[in-house]
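Input set for joint prediction.
Command: fold jointly, output tokens.
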Amino acid sequence: MTDSADAPPRRQKAAGKRQRLTAAAARVLHEQGVERTTIADIARAADVPTGNVYYYFKTKDELVEAALTEHVSHLKTLTDQLDQLPDPRERLKALVAAWVGGRDTAARYGCPTGTLAVEVDKRTEGGLDLAAGRAFRQLLDWAESQFREMGVADPDGLAIALIGAYQGMSLLSNALRDPEIMTREGARLTRWLDTLT
Amino acid sequence: MTDSADAPPRRQKAAGKRQRLTAAAARVLHEQGVERTTIADIARAADVPTGNVYYYFKTKDELVEAALTEHVSHLKTLTDQLDQLPDPRERLKALVAAWVGGRDTAARYGCPTGTLAVEVDKRTEGGLDLAAGRAFRQLLDWAESQFREMGVADPDGLAIALIGAYQGMSLLSNALRDPEIMTREGARLTRWLDTLT
Amino acid sequence: MTDSADAPPRRQKAAGKRQRLTAAAARVLHEQGVERTTIADIARAADVPTGNVYYYFKTKDELVEAALTEHVSHLKTLTDQLDQLPDPRERLKALVAAWVGGRDTAARYGCPTGTLAVEVDKRTEGGLDLAAGRAFRQLLDWAESQFREMGVADPDGLAIALIGAYQGMSLLSNALRDPEIMTREGARLTRWLDTLT
Amino acid sequence: MTDSADAPPRRQKAAGKRQRLTAAAARVLHEQGVERTTIADIARAADVPTGNVYYYFKTKDELVEAALTEHVSHLKTLTDQLDQLPDPRERLKALVAAWVGGRDTAARYGCPTGTLAVEVDKRTEGGLDLAAGRAFRQLLDWAESQFREMGVADPDGLAIALIGAYQGMSLLSNALRDPEIMTREGARLTRWLDTLT
DNA sequence: AATGAATGAGTTTTCATTCAT
DNA sequence: GATGAATGAAAACTCATTCAT
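tokens >
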């Protein structure tokens, strides 16, 4: 009631720090790659002392997983918005439009989920952690639902084709440093969605 | 009768070693990822003393680039074989079949070129090394030639769509550890190629 | 009565460690030479774990520069003391006396500033780092001030002659392992200072 | 008589290689410093295969000593020429003029003998190799002879003063990257020689 | 003697993780 | 919880020296 200005409630501060770390990890890990990013990098980006990170995340792997979850959560926010569109085909086309909207980031750093997935996969030698897989599941399920609602055949195959196309175009766009690949491939996907019956 | 087993020809050893190192690098870097693979790992896989690696490759980056080139060279070998088929459409379908044939490796480690490209991209901070881009160029050009020979519109767009689809399905197949994704997507691509006019 | 021996004050430890490292570097680099001294040598001399050195100095070069600065700072302390003498000629003669006082060290290891300067110069290939130059600037300026105050002609030329003579006699004394060279040359410089008008 | 073009006499070739290595070592070690120069550097500069170096010099130390000797031998050549001047004072003044003539090299790399001496001294830890000392002995002796012939008092002290002045001015000139220091100090030394009686 | 290649010990540097306060 | 500092196990890279022809 009285000390809110000088001493913000601990409960909130801690949660805020965790969130800041997660957001910083999501951004920095995407930009620099998992293996080339140090805990200190993330701590600095989140404006948190290095040693303090370990009160929120026991290991680097936990931070990586949190970052992956953060990206998934961004996708959830996006699909939640798209769900407000009445037509499933329009929802999918809007998803493609969102991808194209992120073309500059994709050309520079690739798809956050995709590039993280590639690296995370190598980190879990032998073991089937599959954190990378989980990251895609949700989006695949959402896309499949849309296709199903559209009444087209093989909805889960189409979902894989669509998400796969996005991963592929992001990867090529990134490797060739050419955002226009996203634009052109996005247009092609949109046309494709229109032809499905 | 011959002493080839006991006394391997010294003359060829040097060239052979470089090749052994390149091949080992291509394999191990693909399996473990660039950043998690040490020079010692590659040396061991090639049965070469660690220090000796540097006689053939001045830096780890050079080894990575050699590995990338090795993968590209594998693709060249493949497309050279496909070129013997009379019909460009058949060549492309055979390419897809080859991809599907590698589904188990893709599901376990992803596409060699693609996963290396993602990591190589993060290694060249800010700089436009584009080694990753060069790795794709040749295959894109080859695919474009086939589409052009088929007389379809937008051959380079189709080339990007095709290679992108492969990258995407490899990535998803890897993240979900599911080789069947390769099979199903391969079938879809084959059908797609058949519909092009 | 006090636990100072068992539990050294942590608060001061950090600052103290950096100073200990700098002092150790100054000594060891002088005695062994820059290139033949390892970070581990310095760490051991400072009683600091090797890895911890990098918390205070990002590279070996930074340690070398700190050592050079440390030697310069010793000279500053010396000239500050000499400044308390009323007569500039006496100050210069006292400086020479101080040099002669360090004859055994000079005969064994050379002038700290001079020998470090020689090696530092070779470390900065092509680049104009001039850390070595900066190391001499202060002493040259101080000597020049004294000559100026004495009212003699060409004070900066004389400063160079004086400091140069010290460097030369240290180098010869070291190469010939003969401290007496310092004594005799010191006497000659003193006589020379007395003749200046 | 017949194969001179295709197969030069072995006896000469070997001697030529040794000489080339010595000359290359003298130059490269001066420019880069002893510790930063590799055997391979010297071999390359002499256009000799790396492995072959060891047929002429058993260790790096031997090469360093040969380089030092080479520099001393240059000095001998110089003093032999100066000996043809009738007046010892003129000989000494001509020596100073020669030093000034090498001012650009001195400003860039320091005095060959002096900088090598500093580094060689650090290489013989504890042991009294004194190769550095021997390098100066000859020049000191020659200068002392000149002073003696001039009939001035304390000829060996003056020799040390003269050679020391050269070492000092080279070192400062190098540290400050200023060849003019050589010019000015040279002029001062010349005047000083003229005043001696 | 000649030579490219091999060797292995050593050096700088990095960093996830832990610790003391 | 918070924080700067500590730690130690790698990892990349270097190079004098040796070796097999």
